[in-house]
Amino acid sequence: MEFVYEVEGGDFTKAGNASSAVKKTLKQLNVNPKVVKRIVVALYEAEVNIVAHAYNGTIKVTINSEHIHIVLDDKGPGIPDIDLAMQEGYSTASSKVREMGFGAGMGLPNMKKNVDELNVSSEVDKGTTVEMITYL
Amino acid sequence: MKISEIIKVLNASIACGEAYIETNIERGFASDLMSDVLTLDTDKMILITGLANMQTIRTVEMADVQCILFVRNKQISEDMLKLAQEHNMVLLQCKYSMFNAVGKLYQAGLEPVY
């Protein structure tokens, strides 16, 4: 099955709505709660990143008996140096993002820790794609 | 330590989740940085924070934490309350600083996460 969610950049009141919906679905599908937590923590960090950095984006979640595959695709400034962005503590977040409790350079490392496969590709001034795969 | 004891120790007020105050809490984690909260894998934990916004509630939802203590007299908005109630969370408020609240809870026997 497949689900698609729209995410609006800059709107922190809605940040987490998609992750919350995915969590509900995974629980209904009786996925192991520990696996659910890891997936939604990674997804939530990624969703917050779209809200924090991009203009808008989509989240596509594909679930089958073998894996949960999530692709976050955004239109935004992109990431000039992905290796640098993957380093713990590196951040370009605004003070507004920091006020929301994020922006300390933990997002991408946190995602990596919680999924089996993380692929990040980006084009400056166009956008970023984050792919996360968790095997069941 | 039960949530009801935490309320007593800090003279805290309860904003929602009265039905769950006999729930047992073993560990406390104090942070205003939500990404740090998202690194944890700890059950029966209370989040102690001075960050009062929708992302605080969303973070504990994702992290499977049931109870939040807001320190420094931070106020809980209607939206936060609604979302917390939806997820059966217990929201507490106290007037103490983070340092003071954490000290009192530690002294009362609440364990750290690490």
UniProtKB/TrEMBL annotation, chain A:
The keyword ATP-binding applies. It comes from Plebeiibacterium sediminum. This is ATP-binding protein. GO terms for molecular function: ATP binding. Residues 16-133 form the Histidine kinase/HSP90-like ATPase domain. SUPFAM superfamilies: ATPase domain of HSP90 chaperone/DNA topoisomerase II/histidine kinase (SSF55874). Coiled coil: none annotated. InterPro entries: HATPase_C_sf, HATPase_dom. Keywords: ATP-binding, Nucleotide-binding.
Automatic annotation (TrEMBL), chain B:
It comes from the Bacteria. Pfam families: DRTGG (PF07085). Residues 5-107 form the DRTGG domain. Homohexamer. This is DRTGG domain-containing protein. It comes from Plebeiibacterium sediminum.
